[in-house]
Amino acid sequence: MGYPIYETFYSWQGEGVHLGKSAFFIRLFGCPVHCPWCDSAGTWHRDYVPERVDKLEAETLAKLAAAAEPELVVVTGGEPVMHDLESLTAELGKLGLLRHLETSGCREISGEWDWVTLSPKREAVPVQSSLENADEFKLIIDNDGAIDEWVAFLSDQIDGRPVWLHPEWSQHSNTDILNRITSFVKKSGSPFRAGTQAHKFYQADTLDPNSANPSPLGGNPKLGY
Description:
Blueprint: E1 2-12, E2 22-28, E3 54-57, H1 58-68, E4 72-76, H2 86-94, E5 99-103, E6 115-118, H3 128-133, E7 136-141, H4 146-154, E8 163-167, H5 175-188, E9 192-194, H6 198-202
Parallel strand pairs: 2-4, 4-5, 5-6, 6-7, 7-8, 8-9
Antiparallel strand pairs: 1-2, 1-3
Helix pairs in contact: 1-2
């Protein structure tokens, strides 16, 4: 089975518990969620999708990842769980690669994973099994009430697993959002952690010529989403 590939590139993990580790990224094409501030709109948005999307076999993808000699392999999207990931994780595992998944959890997770980062989205909330399989949560804080909204949603899932509070990227200089995150973390403590997309400050991903051009929506209603 071939996987539709938007991009593959070598960089480092810019978010979460594994921040700073060298990582090979496999970004799959396709997403049913359609967030209005998506920063990878080329995986689904009509104004940004590439003219051609190649499909690669799991074995080929695993060999590409292994050639980079990363500390871990991150499978992301788009929304990767819309694909059957069994064969991909199997091939990555054969080569001894650590397999990390980044997902909204809107569908059940297939395949064997060493780490799962779940970032819930309003447009397609996570299914229960995906919530239970997450190793960490990443909450996107795009307005003043988003923290309370997502903490209430997670409720009984807040059990010691890290819960990252990330300013939505178009809001990363909004002091109101940043101060809201800071105040909440100082008041609540663990498992809540202040986070950001550190790789964007470095522009680390774009240093690999195989990475696609950024296509962030930034919540622009003129784009129709």
